[in-house]
Amino acid sequence: MNETITLIKGHRSIRKYKDTPIPDEHLKEILLSGQAASTSSNIQAYSVIAIKDPEKKRKLAELSGNQQQIVESPVLLVWLADVRKIQNAIRQHEDVELEQNVELFLLGTIDATLAAQNAAIAAESLGYGIVYIGGIRNNPQEVTELLELPPLVYPVFGLCVGIPDQEPDLRPRLPLAAVYHEEVYSEAGLADEIAAYDAITKHYYATRKGGGRGGDQETVWSREMLRRFNSGRNRGHLRDYLSGQGFKLK
């Protein structure tokens, strides 16, 4: 164990924030830390927009499923997969269209994710709390219009950053045996690992503090997965949206 590992393993999603602005120098260091993340072939196919305007945060909160933490946080960072800048770089030399496929789409998405996670760890090291906002993809066309995103750019997720105004319990993770494999993928023992994790999460959900379903005696992880992925709310609109943004997923 060292200070970095302790910080990473102490991560908690924060959904309530104090009304304290983030100094510009802190925000700059958070973003520079994001830029230090790994990026395939140095393409850096992402961008980030900082949202501080209260009315714009209110609108984004509404578009993301009425998530109040967006309104309360001093800044929302919207992380974008951005292959448009690659198109612009190419056109410094030749007036040609960027050759697209699923791999290019993944590169932009992965780059944005790696940079955001670096930024999240940097923010937590400075004493801030964070929470990712996947709901930014609930209404991507409206978000695109609000943020004036050009073609070949799409919002991957938001990231609220601010001084925590709550102390939620650490959420337990799956046993390492359920995610770690050696040499080949194996499902041997997975059902038992899930059952054991369900018992842990049942206690967590029933007793946790800091928001959510505290006191719920029936919630377990596997049931949460059933609710999450059998609800008809899995953003099936994204393929058409991405096509409209100029991405060719072939």
UniProtKB/TrEMBL annotation:
Enzyme Commission code(s) on record: 1.5.1.38
Residue ranges occupied by any Nitroreductase domain in the UniProt entry: 8-162
Enzyme class: oxidoreductase
Superkingdom of the source species: Bacteria
GO function term, MF aspect, one: FMN reductase (NADPH) activity
This protein's UniProt keywords: Flavoprotein, FMN, NADP, Oxidoreductase
Family that this chain belongs to: Belongs to the flavin oxidoreductase frp family.
Name listed for the protein in its UniProt record: FMN reductase (NADPH)
UniProt organism field: Paenibacillus phyllosphaerae
Record lineage: Bacteria, Bacillati, Bacillota, Bacilli, Bacillales
